[in-house]
Amino acid sequence: MQRRVAGTVIIDGTDDEIWPESDEATHQVRAIEMVLSSDQPAVAMDIEDVRWGGECRVEIRVTARVLDDNQVQVAGDAKLFEGTSEDTPDMEDRQVVEFIVPKGGRPAHHFVQLRSTGVGGGDHAEITFSLTNSVVED
After folding, report:
1. Do residues 73 and 67 make contact, with C-beta atoms less than 8 angstroms apart?
2. Which residues contact 46 (CB under 8 A, 6 or more apart)?
3. Nearest to 24 by CA among 56, 44, 53
4. How far apart, in Å, are the Cα atoms of 75 and each of 20, 45, 63, 79?
5. Is the pTM of this model over 0.85?
6. Nearest partner of 55 among 20, 94, 92, 97, judged by Cα
7. pLDDT of residue 119 exceeding 70
8. E strand residue ranges, the chain
């Protein structure tokens, strides 16, 4: 049986600047819609990186797979980078992402908080997943 996973991933981020500069913020919404079946391995969700402030980037790498009971497992990680450019290799935080999207079309919500661990430490990002799992009608 095929399952449709649909919803949004919302990424809010703040590039903390030293006074008198103003902080730079972003609010991005990424739409998700994919069809899965129980006979396929985990499938990567296509979530575009979010870049802002000339220094920050969030990467979300998660996969989805149908479990035996038709629930969908979402698993992977989310990373916050901060440095001298939006392409920096300097990772500030990483959080494991793992949650279940129940069958039946009721939304599952999952929240991830990322924070800068470096000097200054004010950069942060919040990621909110809101996904449903429903039967694909023929």
Report:
1. yes
2. none
3. 53
4. 40, 10, 6, 14
5. yes
6. 92
7. no
8. 2-15, 24-37, 43-44, 50-52, 56-66, 72-82, 91-101, 108-115, 124-135
**CA-based nearest residue to 125, from 95, 88, 90, 101:** 95
Chain-centre distance for alpha carbon 19? 30
Q: What's the token pair of residue 54?
A: 């000339």
How many domains in the chain?
1
Give 81-94 as a DSSP string: EESSSTT---EEEE
- Exposure of 5 by Cβ count < 10 A (0-12 exposed, 13-18 middle, 19+ buried)? buried
| 59-105 pLDDT, tens digit each | 999 999 999 999 999 999 999 999 889 999 999 999 999 999 999 98
The residue whose two tokens read 């919500």 is 109
CB-CB contact of 112 with 126 (8 Å): yes
Whether the CB-CB separation of 36 and 63 falls below 8 Å is answered with: no
Q: Residue 127: which domain range?
A: 2-135
Return the number of other C-beta atoms located less than 10 Å from residue 46's C-beta.
9
Residue type, 105: G
